[in-house]
Amino acid sequence: MDEPTPRVNFETMQRYHGKKVILCCQINQIDNGYVRASTSDKGEVTIQGGSSPYEGHFIEVVGTVVNPNTIQESEHTNLSDNFSKFQRFNVYVDSIY
Question: What global pTM score does this model have?
């Protein structure tokens, strides 16, 4: 049986080195296959390996934590540019840890 994939913010993703996670973030910059993004708890992450286009400013990334601030993307979901629940995501993550 597969382990459930945890939803994380910057602080909690540190616990999952080498593991698959789900991270909600705001895109700041896309450069040569790398995405620089802000997390709901105001951390900065790099997402590498995305193959499908990013549409808008907010995404939910499924991927493997490579190091304390990098995720190797498996897939992502584009969220609305007006994703009003971004800060609530952090409250949700904090409540489960």
Answer: 0.86
